[in-house]
Design a protein that fits this description.
It is a single chain. This protein is 6% helix and 32% strand. The protein is mainly beta. It has a single domain, classed as Alpha-Beta Complex (glutathione-dependent formaldehyde- activating enzyme (gfa)). The longest helix is centred in the N-terminal third of the chain and has 7 residues.
C-alpha cells in the first residue's frame, strides 16, 4: 500500500498523489467491459490503466515491469477502505509541498530499489 506522487497519478487523481494497493494479478477479477489506455513510462515500461467505459473510474492498472501485479486505487473501495494505511511514498521527487503526506512514511524518488537520489 502506498501513495504515489508522480505527475501522471496527480493528473488521474486530481490531487497531489494517488493512494493505491498492490495485489497479485491472479487475485483480481474484473466482470464487465473496461477501456484501457497505455503510455510509456520514463523507465521505458508500458503502463496500462483499465477504467470504466461509463464513468471513467480507474479500476486497476499495471506495469510491464511487474506483469504479475495489479495496482488498485484505494478509493475504489470507498466506504469499505478503513483498512488502508499507506506504508511508503513513491515518486517523492514529484511531491508537491501543498500535498500534506504523513512525515513518517519512507520516501522513494522512484520505485523502491531504483532510487537515484
Amino acid at each position: 500500500m502506498f501513495q504515489c506522487a508522480c505527475v501522471n497519478c496527480q493528473k488521474v487523481s486530481g490531487s497531489g498523489h494517488s493512494s493505491v494497493v498492490l495485489v497479485a494479478a491472479d487475485s483480481v477479477g474484473i466482470a464487465g467491459a473496461t477501456k484501457t489506455i497505455s503510455r510509456t513510462a520514463a523507465s521505458g515500461a508500458s503502463f496500462t490503466r483499465h477504467f470504466c467505459p461509463e464513468c471513467g473510474t480507474t479500476i486497476c492498472a499495471f506495469s510491464s515491469r511487474a506483469p504479475g501485479m495489479r495496482i488498485l486505487p484505494a478509493g475504489l473501495f470507498a466506504g469499505q477502505n478503513d483498512w488502508f494505511e499507506p506504508n511508503q511514498l513513491i515518486f517523492a521527487r514529484s511531491h508537491l509541498a501543498w500535498d500534506l503526506i504523513a512525515d513518517h512514511l519512507p520516501r522513494h524518488d522512484t520505485y523502491r530499489g531504483v532510487d537515484r537520489s
